[in-house]
Amino acid sequence: MDHAKTKGIVRDPSLAPEGKLKxxxxxxxxxxxxxxxxxxAKERPFEGLRVAVALHVEAxxxxxxxxxxxxxxxxxxxxxxxxxxxDDVAAALLEEGAAVFAKRGVDMREYEELLVRTLETKPHLIxxxxxxxxxxxxxxxxxxxxxxxxxxxETTTGIHRLRAMERQGALRFPMVNVNGAQCKHLxxxxxxxxxxxWDGINRATNLVVAGKTVVVGGYGWCGRGVAMxxxxxxxxxIVTEVDPIRxxxxxxxxxxxxxxxxxxxxxxxxxxxxxxxxxLRGEHFARMKDxxxxxxxxxxxxxxxxxxxxxxxxxxxxVREGVEAFALPDGRTLYLLAEGRLxxxxxxxxxxxxxxDMSFSLQALALRYLAxxxxxxxxxxxxLPRELDEQVARLKLETLxxxxxxLSREQREYLDNWF
Length: 419
Ligand code: ADE
What we know:
By secondary structure, the protein is α/β, with parallel strands linked by helices. It has 17 helices and 16 strands. It has helices spanning 16-28, 31-43, 59-70, 87-95, 108-119, 132-138, 156-167, 182-205, 221-232, 244-252, 260-263, 282-285, 306-312, 343-346, 353-373, 386-400, 409-416; strands at residues 8-9, 50-54, 74-78, 99-101, 125-128, 150-153, 175-177, 213-217, 236-240, 256-257, 269-272, 293-296, 315-320, 323-327, 333-337, 381-383. Strands 1-4-3-2-5-6-7-16 form an 8-stranded parallel beta sheet, with helices on both faces. Helix 1 packs across helix 3 (59-70). The longest helix is centred in the middle third of the chain and has 24 residues, at 182-205. The termini are far apart. Mean pLDDT is 97; it is low at 1-6. The structure holds adenine. The site of adenine has 15 residues, from helix 3, helix 8 and helix 14.
């Protein structure tokens, strides 16, 4: 069935030409995914299969969708965040034949409605980023569970939710942990987030980072990247953590480590990237310096308690695209970026194309693995097979023109020996 002209909810279909240009640019910088697309076009691993996708609807995501369609899939896609869809890309994808249910700037009710519309296409496979598709399938729309054979999850937050479901025996189909692949979190979470978060913050604010104090809330793979790039931009960097081992790592990486309550008084920029709620809350806003900039890089908009900030403020107004000023009764002003939603996608274009080349190649291979091997996997979080991770790494090296050594027979024998 051709969804093309019949299915979809987008802001403005006439934006398609701009979206197409963005997609062409991304595609030209995603050579590994291009190779996979070529093999999918020949082998058609998704012939007869429907795929529902919840991802940030922007150019790199469109390249993944194109790859799945080249492999024979009928794809329906919704955004995985109310503020990250790029309307021109959504329009272009619709024109390219996907069923697109995605608009930028929707409220939570419409956001969920659009996700449900993708599930109403009765998918065999799903791709989720943050876990909302899986949650809907296991709560309000259990009636749509039957056709689903399995799926793949993109992000740390989604994996946390899936693990909780797995522990309770609630998960009804296998979900591949793409985030757990080395070619995902080592590069996407660290270098991707590290760059795209500062891209978003700098675009939104147009302020200098050098010489300022940056407070990074959370030192997982994403936090490591955000802190590393803040240092590279010339900031003094403070890390806050709840995990003692990560705190030592941050300390030995050369960052100051202290509780948020202390950091609150000295930070110029605050970036939350912990995966947890209320990392910045009333007690912190009360201590912050006039002019402090607050940004969230975690998947959900729960890390900065915006409700508390709004309740403390005497006024709230938009001062630039993606920047709101909260005036406090004592005369201080705090600036919140992108409504506290993930700043790299709400105020920027997300991770660089060359990084998403690896992440989305993994997604494509994970989906083919599921299409072929879903039977017997059960309601579990499944690791992506190591060979697929290595396949992406080798293709990436090849496209980068980087050769590496191989073990000699003697070296292999040496490693196999224990005496
Ligand atoms: N572009 C598409 N999906 C993304 C993600 N999960 N993070 C950053 N950029 C993206």
